[in-house]
Amino acid sequence: MDKNILVETANKMMMRPKGILAMDESSPTIAKRLASIKVDNNEDNRRRYRELIVTAPNLSDYISGAILFEETFDQKMNDGTLFRDYLASIGILPGIKVDKGAKDLSCHPNEKITEGLDGLRDRLAAYYENGAKFCKWRAVITIANDIPSDACIESNMNALARYASLCQENNLVPIVEPEVLINGTHSIDECDKVTRKSLSSLFSHLKMFNVYLPGTVLKPSMVISGQENDSRASYEEVASKTIACLRDFVPDDTAGIAFLSGGQTDLEAESHLNIMNQSSDLPWRVTFSYARAIQAAALAAWQGKDENLESSQSILIERAQRCSNSSVGKL
Ligand code: 13P
Question: 17-76 pLDDT, tens per residue?
């Protein structure tokens, strides 16, 4: 592990006023996204869509790093350039999702465990060799009657810590993503309780595995009411409870925080981040690592048609710009 390399990469990822673009939809997720616009889910269409994203004019003004799915990391654009090389050439760090997805947790109905540790060391060495600068691993925590269980939280946070230490051994900055799902009728206070328990467990596992926090980026969900809750908390309450929770569990020397959007509307995702960044004394950089809150409107505008490419790109850039502004509290 070279701490200087890790810190240098993490600082670039957290550069103001930028954030990280998540464009690493797994095979099942990209299938859903393309089905929503009635476009065939084949390799060429996945390339066309992702090429639209990375070639949007001036993307690097707002985006410091892009998380790719393994297919895209090894894929060529229409002119034969590798996506990862193109991103590096426009000043966007290429990163890669390295988990193998959230699978059913044995003997724990409705709970998931993220897989992908077997063979990870060798895969990471190859990704670094091929130009990756950082990685992502997503753990999923569901709130419902009697869940999450301790088994779900502890096993997922342990896996995140093992993944993070393997990344750092290979000079790759780990993005650790413990996502508490927004799905459900739960209150913001229930979300707060589960998020606190998850972050507490995560940081004790990271410590146990000697993970170097100045070379680690946290990608949390916000403390927010469940999507099907009838009286959802205000933007101000989400922002203040989220920051209070992070202050209690995220050590000051962590490289930074980049939220997922997790099914929030575009307006919610940008407003929450903007309010958080209006407090002046945060100990860490707080920015975005959104997929849907940057891409959704552009995907809908594209419809798989080349003639919609430019209008779709300008929508994508407008979303990236608004998220960038909110990452410095200037929306
Ligand atoms: P969303 O912003 O759509 O939640 O996606 C972020 C992500 O990378 C989930 O793993």
Answer: 999 999 999 999 999 999 999 999 999 999 999 999 999 999 999 999 999 999 999 999
Residue 261 CA: nearest ligand 1 atom is 2
Going by C-alpha positions, the residue among 206, 208, 287 that lies closest to residue 251 is 206
Structural domain includes residue 299: yes
User: In which domain, by residue range, is 108 found?
Assistant: 3-326
User: Ligand 1 pocket, 17 CB below 6 A?
Assistant: no
Using a cut of 0.90, tell me whether the model's pTM lies above it.
yes
Q: Is residue 122 part of a domain?
A: yes
Please confirm, yes or no, whether 38 is among the known catalytic residues. Answer: no
The tally of CA atoms less than 13 A away on the side-chain side of residue 328 is 13
DSSP code at position 308: G
- Which atom of ligand 1 lies closest to the CA of 221? 4
- Is the Cβ atom of 260 under 6 angstroms away from ligand 1? yes
